[in-house]
């Protein structure tokens, strides 16, 4: 493993336009559960499958059950960035990393100090009225549990929706274009904490034309064979050994 860490350090030292493409594994060390892990959302007992509950058609049809699930499982309070988030922010500040492309919706990259972050699936921190477009924060959604109908209602009466991409919804074009441009112009692509099975997000890595693909994940992925360096370990253990020069 030491040889692989040394090789990763060399790649980072030689790179100037790194893009980090991350998934749920980036935030699990901050206490946010992985959707597909043994203890993740997809293993819980609910009246409906989680994939159904967090779909747009279910949101429109049964918003009360959607928000019951959303508040309990997707609003995670008092979480803080971990070593991976902070190290990526350091790499950006040092002029080594040009962008973070994330499938996560927790906002922890920005909280750690990252500036250029493409949130493919949106963010729980942003919410908007579907009628008048007024913005609301995450606390407003959490507190709506105590409202008369348990739904987050705007002052205009409209339903407030999280700025999260639900199943059956399209990804934001501006976010996708920014992510594709960053990946296409990167000299190194570091893929971390993702199984690369969620599309269309996982398909974005095919735009990479640079020198090195590094894959860091606890378990094997379908992209391992195409990577120049594969490390099967937790991101925190890897990044805590990386020095930012």
TrEMBL record:
<comment type="similarity">
    <text>Belongs to the sirtuin family. Class U subfamily.</text>
</comment>
<keyword id="KW-0378">Hydrolase</keyword>
<feature type="binding site">
    <location>
        <position position="154"/>
    </location>
    <ligand>
        <name>Zn(2+)</name>
    </ligand>
</feature>
<dbReference type="InterPro" id="IPR003000">
    <property type="entry name" value="Sirtuin"/>
</dbReference>
<feature type="binding site">
    <location>
        <position position="156"/>
    </location>
    <ligand>
        <name>Zn(2+)</name>
    </ligand>
</feature>
<protein>
    <recommendedName>
        <fullName>NAD-dependent protein deacetylase</fullName>
        <ecNumber>2.3.1.286</ecNumber>
    </recommendedName>
</protein>
<dbReference type="InterPro" id="IPR050134">
    <property type="entry name" value="NAD-dep_sirtuin_deacylases"/>
</dbReference>
<keyword id="KW-0963">Cytoplasm</keyword>
<comment type="function">
    <text>NAD-dependent protein deacetylase which modulates the activities of several enzymes which are inactive in their acetylated form.</text>
</comment>
<dbReference type="InterPro" id="IPR029035">
    <property type="entry name" value="DHS-like_NAD/FAD-binding_dom"/>
</dbReference>
<keyword id="KW-0808">Transferase</keyword>
<feature type="binding site">
    <location>
        <position position="195"/>
    </location>
    <ligand>
        <name>NAD(+)</name>
    </ligand>
</feature>
<dbReference type="GO" id="GO:0016787">
    <property type="term" value="F:hydrolase activity"/>
</dbReference>
<keyword id="KW-0520">NAD</keyword>
<feature type="binding site">
    <location>
        <position position="217"/>
    </location>
    <ligand>
        <name>NAD(+)</name>
    </ligand>
</feature>
<dbReference type="GO" id="GO:0017136">
    <property type="term" value="F:histone deacetylase activity, NAD-dependent"/>
</dbReference>
<feature type="binding site">
    <location>
        <position position="194"/>
    </location>
    <ligand>
        <name>NAD(+)</name>
    </ligand>
</feature>
<feature type="binding site">
    <location>
        <position position="28"/>
    </location>
    <ligand>
        <name>NAD(+)</name>
    </ligand>
</feature>
<feature type="binding site">
    <location>
        <position position="105"/>
    </location>
    <ligand>
        <name>NAD(+)</name>
    </ligand>
</feature>
<dbReference type="Pfam" id="PF02146">
    <property type="entry name" value="SIR2"/>
</dbReference>
<feature type="binding site">
    <location>
        <position position="121"/>
    </location>
    <ligand>
        <name>NAD(+)</name>
    </ligand>
</feature>
<feature type="binding site">
    <location>
        <position position="35"/>
    </location>
    <ligand>
        <name>NAD(+)</name>
    </ligand>
</feature>
<feature type="binding site">
    <location>
        <position position="35"/>
    </location>
    <ligand>
        <name>nicotinamide</name>
    </ligand>
</feature>
<feature type="domain" description="Deacetylase sirtuin-type">
    <location>
        <begin position="1"/>
        <end position="245"/>
    </location>
</feature>
<feature type="binding site">
    <location>
        <position position="24"/>
    </location>
    <ligand>
        <name>NAD(+)</name>
    </ligand>
</feature>
<feature type="binding site">
    <location>
        <position position="129"/>
    </location>
    <ligand>
        <name>Zn(2+)</name>
    </ligand>
</feature>
<feature type="binding site">
    <location>
        <position position="106"/>
    </location>
    <ligand>
        <name>NAD(+)</name>
    </ligand>
</feature>
<feature type="binding site">
    <location>
        <position position="36"/>
    </location>
    <ligand>
        <name>NAD(+)</name>
    </ligand>
</feature>
<keyword id="KW-0862">Zinc</keyword>
<dbReference type="GO" id="GO:0008270">
    <property type="term" value="F:zinc ion binding"/>
</dbReference>
<feature type="binding site">
    <location>
        <position position="106"/>
    </location>
    <ligand>
        <name>nicotinamide</name>
    </ligand>
</feature>
<feature type="active site" description="Proton acceptor">
    <location>
        <position position="121"/>
    </location>
</feature>
<feature type="binding site">
    <location>
        <position position="103"/>
    </location>
    <ligand>
        <name>NAD(+)</name>
    </ligand>
</feature>
<dbReference type="GO" id="GO:0005737">
    <property type="term" value="C:cytoplasm"/>
</dbReference>
<dbReference type="InterPro" id="IPR026591">
    <property type="entry name" value="Sirtuin_cat_small_dom_sf"/>
</dbReference>
<feature type="binding site">
    <location>
        <position position="132"/>
    </location>
    <ligand>
        <name>Zn(2+)</name>
    </ligand>
</feature>
<dbReference type="GO" id="GO:0070403">
    <property type="term" value="F:NAD+ binding"/>
</dbReference>
<keyword id="KW-0479">Metal-binding</keyword>
<dbReference type="InterPro" id="IPR028628">
    <property type="entry name" value="Sirtuin_class_U"/>
</dbReference>
<dbReference type="InterPro" id="IPR026590">
    <property type="entry name" value="Ssirtuin_cat_dom"/>
</dbReference>
<feature type="binding site">
    <location>
        <position position="105"/>
    </location>
    <ligand>
        <name>nicotinamide</name>
    </ligand>
</feature>
């Amino acid at each position: 493993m030491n040889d692989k860490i040394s090789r990763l350090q060399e790649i980072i030292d030689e790179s100037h336009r790194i893009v980090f493409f991350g998934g749920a594994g980036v935030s699990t060390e901050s206490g946010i559960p992985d959707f597909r892990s043994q203890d993740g959302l997809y293993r819980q007992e609910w009246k409906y499958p989680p994939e159904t509950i967090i779909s747009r058609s279910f949101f429109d049809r049964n918003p009360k059950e959607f928000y019951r699930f959303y508040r309990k499982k997707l609003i995670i309070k008092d979480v803080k960035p971990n070593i991976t988030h902070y190290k990526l922010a350091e790499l950006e500040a040092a002029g080594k990393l040009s962008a973070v492309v994330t499938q996560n919706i927790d906002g922890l990259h920005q909280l750690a100090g990252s500036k250029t972050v493409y949130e493919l699936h949106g963010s729980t921190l942003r919410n908007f009225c579907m009628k008048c477009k007024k913005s609301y924060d995450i606390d407003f959604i959490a507190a709506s549990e105590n409202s008369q109908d348990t739904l987050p209602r705007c002052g205009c009466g409209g339903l407030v929706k999280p700025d999260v991409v639900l199943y059956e919804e399209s990804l934001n074009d501006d976010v996708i274009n920014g992510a594709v441009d960053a990946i296409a112009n990167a000299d190194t692509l570091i893929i971390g904490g993702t199984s690369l099975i969620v599309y269309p997000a996982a398909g974005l890595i095919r735009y990479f034309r640079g020198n090195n693909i590094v894959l860091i994940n606890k378990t094997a992925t379908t992209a391992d064979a195409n990577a120049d360096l594969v490390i099967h370990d937790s991101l925190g253990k890897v990044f805590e050994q990386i020095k930012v020069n």
